[in-house]
Task: inverse folding
């Protein structure tokens, strides 16, 4: 590691960091991306909005297993649902989620 003269001193560095609560929220957010099933659901929803049954069929899982994961993802504000008749159509919550997925995939595919 190079000692740069324009780098902040140790005491100044702490002041530049996000507060502990923000760091814990960030870590919790990324835990959701660390679960392969949730990552697959998010990948499907990058392609198009889908119903629980469509996700279950695409991933070879039960509706209840998909519903459970969607509850977790909704709680993390990564997906949202829109009631359409008796069903709910799920989509990524916003463009930030799309960008996180895109950057993550770009990063893991860098060396391939």
Result:
């Amino acid at each position: 590691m190079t000692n740069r003269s324009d780098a902040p001193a140790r005491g100044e560095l702490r002041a530049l960091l996000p507060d502990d609560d923000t760091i814990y929220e960030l870590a919790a957010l990324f835990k959701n991306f660390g679960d392969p099933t949730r990552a697959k659901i998010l990948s499907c929803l990058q392609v198009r909005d889908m119903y629980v049954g469509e996700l279950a069929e695409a991933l070879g899982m039960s509706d209840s297993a998909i519903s459970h994961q969607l509850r977790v993802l909704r709680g993390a504000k990564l997906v949202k649902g829109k009631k359409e008749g008796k069903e709910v159509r799920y989509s990524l919550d916003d463009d930030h989620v799309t960008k996180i997925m895109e950057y993550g995939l770009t990063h893991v595919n860098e060396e391939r």
Q: What stands out?
A: The mean pLDDT is 92. Strands lie at 50-51, 79-84, 87-92. The two ends are 27 Å apart (CA to CA).
